[in-house]
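Standup notes
- DV: blocked on the single-chain target, sequence here:
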Amino acid sequence: MLVTLAALAFSATDTLHLIPQPREITPSGVVALAGGIAVDVPADSADRFAARDLTEALRERGIRIAPAATASIRVTLLRSTGTQARRLLAANRIVFTDSMAAEGYAAVHQGRRLYVIGASSAGVFYGAQTIKQLVIGRGASARLHLATIRDWPAMRYRGVHDDLSRGPVPTLEFQKKQIREFAAHKLNVYSPYFEHTLEYRSNPLAAPPMGAMTQEQVRELVAYARQYHMEVIPEQEAFGHLHHLLKWELYAPIAETPHGHVIAPDAPGSMTLIKELFAEIAELFPSPFVHLGADETFELGRGRTAARVSAEGIGPVYLRFLSAIVDSLRPLDKRFLFWGDVAGNHPELVPTLPKDMIAVAWAYWLSRDYEGFVRPYRDAGMEFWVAPGVNNWNRVYPDNSVALRNIQGFVRDGQRLGATGMLNTTWDDDGDALFNQAWYGVLWGAAASWQPGESRIDDFERSFGLVFHGDTTGMIDEAQRKLAAAHQRLRDAGIGDASNYAFWLDPWSSEGQLMAAQVLPAARDVRVLAESALVLTAHARRHGPLRHPDAIAAMELGARRMDWLAAKFQFANEIAEMYARAGSADTTREGRRRATDELAGITHINGRIQDMREGFANLKQLYRQAWLAENRPYWIDNVLGRYDLNVQRWIAREEDVAAAWRVYNRTGVLPAAASIGMPPPIQQSSAPQP
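- DV (later): unblocked, structure below
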């Protein structure tokens, strides 16, 4: 077998793997949990919730919650101002500094007791989350790492920005799961992105049927998140990215261009609409923050405001309208975030922005340093956050080799230059991204924003599978590395990475033929890496129950789609090669037999053209399952239709080849490949071996 499983095994009970890693930790042994764990019930209601959350997590892992007298270990949650906590801190020479007050915590091991101490309810909660990760394994065989810990975050705001407007709209239950997992890894901001998928009673045309959060769902989610110390910060686009509203005729008078994407700043009614939308947002979301978006206003100046932009310049027109939006919304008593495009386009105008706004500088690619994205805001005295990305958009699976380094570098430089927050972004640009595939990048963002300075990627890569999935074999981590390497192999081949464009591209089209010439030399390597990832996840599943099986299934879907991206180019070219050989066979009995064998290899039982049909059909079923595990049915047919289109395409080609075969049987002459839309085979040099 191509994957050496024995080499991947490690003893998870001998090594600490935590996400994020605490600032200061001194291990003090490991205790078996055969006798169970006792979790004391605190007096404070918020701390009781933290204790209950810890207890439920342990029960889910089959660990017995035992009476204090018989438990293997007893966990107690304390506030730092209490007498017992002060005594424990003094005895262990632990100082609670001002930087620990808001969210910091300490853990103290003493005998058969493990104490979590926080100055705030958030600190106690985050300490309890670390206890979850100190427990390795399941049931009576589980073990607990004992340690003395002192920990607090590097950044005040640590969040995830989740696209709810480019296709997938999660169910409320999945959003609650997101909240739980974000909080478990010490994130404290969830920012749903809305263009049109929020119910507005003042503007009911905006929300698509069955494809928007209702106001009741928002209130329920906000209340749920509050228990987990999660701030829900909505982003409603207020300038650009509003096509789904502006395509309605009733909103045509305020569009910069007909049925376009951008609100015209000078149009009567533009500010009225903005005020109506954000008045409802302010009532629904109690957060002190609201994100205005205001990015990528590419159409500005191409329509209603063309004359003004020509006279004044696009930068001043853009910034004056953004400032006017903020001024008009000040009665809502919110602080306004906005995307920091202006720093790159017009840095000289940054000082003209209202100083109480918060710039969210974004960059999703690799750079030696990211200082240029934030320095204009720092120099202007504005608060700013940084927004890296998980690189999940337009890809069959997130490109984690890019995502991890982008997050690492941007958060590092953001911390160094004074960023107060990080908003790690997921985007669903072509409508088929699955959040369950993005947990790897999301948890890395949680680690990088909590930990000070430049976080170590290799530490994270060794920890993710154990911390998130409970995988004690290391196989999930190795599978993630295989998928990142497959992306890199395609990048080395010159096609970028495992993009959805390459996945859907017809290999017999003129564009497909150009791409096939690049993909084919790398195809075997890509397939071996993707298939090895599938072998690894299968063995990890069999080794023991894994947490988040839907996320494992989504990862496996990504591996299968990556494998199929390469396989379809291989099979399509093999069909062309077989057809060419059949067409060049001589008219002897042996020649006709060889031609028949070649044609049977194309379209008979288990023929290559049947493989093409079945590959898309099978992936469609897996994709539907993965989508519905997290999303509402809204939008799914837009993606499934592409699978159907490809199935039908290869069914039609199956019939074309079968008809050509019948002609050959009657006449002894095989119709030219071009007559049935088949290109000539691509000549390949010997493919590199893995």
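- Follow-up: Confidence is low (pLDDT under 50) at residues 1-13, 686-690.
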